[in-house]
Amino acid sequence: MTSRLKLTTWLPVLLVAIFLVIQLFPVIWVISASLQTPEALARGPSNRLIPDTLYLGNYVRAFDTSPLLQYLLNSTIIAVLTIGLTIILAAPAAYAIEKMRFSGSRIVLNYFLLGLMIPVFVSLLPIFQSLGFFGLRNTYWAVVLPQVGFQLPVAIYLYTSFFRGIPNELLEAASIDGAGVFRTFWSVAVPLSINATITIVVYNFIFVWNEFVFANTFLTNDAIKTLPVGLNDFVSDMGRRDYGATYAAIVVSVLPTVALYLFLNRRVIDSMTAGAVRG
Amino acid sequence: MRKNKLLGTPSWAGWLFVTPALVLFTAVVIVPIGWSFYLSLGAWNGLGKWRFTGIANYLNMLGDTVFRQALLNNIFFSLVGSAVQLVVGMAMAVSLISIARFRNVIRVAYFLPAVISSVAISQIFVQLLSADPEGFINGALKSVGLGSFAQPFLSNTGLTLLIVTLVDAYKFCAIYMAIFYSALVSLDQDVLAAAEIDGANWLQQLFLVRLPLIWATIAASVVLVVSGTLRGFDIPFVMTGGGPGTSSELVSTYMYKTLFRQSNFGYGSSLAIFLVIECLLIVVIIRKAFSATEKTG
Questions:
Q1: What is the rounded distance in angstroms from the CA atom of residue A70 to the CA atom of residue A224?
Q2: How confident is the model at residue A239, as a pLDDT?
Q3: Is residue A31 within 8 Å of A251, Cβ to Cβ?
Q4: Is pLDDT above 70 for A5?
Q5: Is A185–B283 a contact, with Cβ atoms under 8 angstroms apart?
Q6: Closest by CA position to B79, among listed B161, B190, B1
Q7: Distance from CA of A148 to the nearest CA of B (A)
């Protein structure tokens, strides 16, 4: 009996240790590799986890030889526009569905939730053609609009389940005090839903920052590409010539989400699981 | 249902609030399905005239050996990928609730790959698996005396599908860890204490008490993981491009190349329609299966 007790004590610790190494190793390895000199990297397998020096030349070359800074800026602008537009469209829609309960609102909600099951691939060619028709290819809107469209179901789902928790009496009190439909939404419901909004913003940020398919299809100019697409091009372009700069570019591309994650860690986990588990 | 309606809100106000989202969603998500279906019924390369060919594209899929290979690969990718994500996610969650300290820090560390872009994850693994220059994995194999296994991994047609499946599972398994973990920690401690008093050992507690109690969460996760893997694209596309040959081709990567490399818009659209129907159908079947077991069990 005592040996079994021991087993249940050390086995989980061992498993946790193994999982930790597996989950952290690739990121630690690429950071470490990005800080080694080209000579050290050329000396053989880049398998030393502790670099001899803190060499930053790889980063300098990565920024010098590619529009990495431009990609960073593009990704930021696209993320801000996508998140902003998703919130502006989803919050009132969810409020109307959950609180105004107009005739047909249940059908409207189910219609939106249908979007959760549709893979983005089916929209690629039609959107590609429409963007060409409207002259929007290689603009920020070329990825913002499709992303917002596909983010709306999750955002509306999260907002409706949040609004369900706000008692109607609270909102009715405002309207008895003379606030109209818009005032009640804007000055009562919106401030109350700040937590839901943060969840949706965090979920969207991770998703939008990492998005690849739309950006890779609709953005072909270097001046407008996002980080994931730029990184992919950079590696196929420079990957065979400058390994150090490649590692540095990878680190730069993951830094914003990792930094956000380090600050808001549990919030990010909760947002991503809330966004994943829907209905 | 209407009894929950807010007092004094006219119906037009509701439609006013919902219409902007409705319009964009319909334009981006719903209209393209019909549009793709229309395109799938013809032959077109984007330049000449669209020509109606009926269901010829769908019939061509039956005889297309690349498509058949991609479909088989997709089944492997979804089955193995889903199993790995659920089992590893569960193992991570169960080991985490079984240790006494540092749970939150470890959970945050576990979750790291899930916040990193699939392009970055793919590129990191391409470097780790590389043979020229010798990547970490080949170097490590040699230094522990397993040099005979060292090879250019992503050129080995027998391994590429397994590799992209595992890297994809690697990126997402922490999501299931987080879902299972929060379900497990919210279990009623009294029930577990009762099981322990009744003499249930650790394994019995896990399989006879804990897992049955979070069965609904597990069922929801199965739907989630399967529909996630059916949409797999980024990691195979970036790591191998479906190759070498068709060794790691998925229906999604094949569709993408047919549309945007070969400009075969008709056939590519029929592959896109196939993907939609596949995703909807399989999710519905899994849901049905789970509700059936709930009724009988």
A1: 8
A2: 62
A3: yes
A4: no
A5: no
A6: B161
A7: 8
DSSP structure class, residue B135? -
Contact (Cβ atoms closer than 8 angstroms) between residue B96 and residue B176: no
Run of H or E including B212:
helix B211-213
pTM assigned to the model: 0.91
The alpha carbons of chain B give a radius of gyration, in whole angstroms, of 24
How buried is B128 (Cβ within 10 angstroms: 0-12 exposed, 13-18 middle, 19+ buried)? buried
Per the model's pLDDT, the better-predicted residue between A249 and A279 turns out to be A249
Contact list, A50 vs chain B (CB under 8 Å): none
* Cβ neighbours of A8 in B, within 8 Å: 98, 202
The tokens for A156 are: 């509306």
List pLDDT tens digits, range A166-186. Answer: 888 888 888 777 778 888 888
Q: How far is B288 from chain A (nearest CA, A)?
A: 15
Sign of CA dihedral B102, B104, B107, B111: negative
Task: Name residues of chain B where pLDDT drops below 70.
Answer: 1-8, 294-297
Query: In Å, what is the CA distance from A150 to each residue of A167, A248, B7, B22?
Result: 29, 32, 32, 12
Distance from CA of B296 to the nearest CA of A (A): 23
Q: Which domains does chain B have, with CATH numbers?
A: 56-296 (1.10.3720.10)
Q: Rounded CA gap, B152 and B93, in Å?
A: 34
pLDDT tens sequence across B155-201: 899 999 999 999 999 999 999 999 999 999 988 888 888 888 888 88
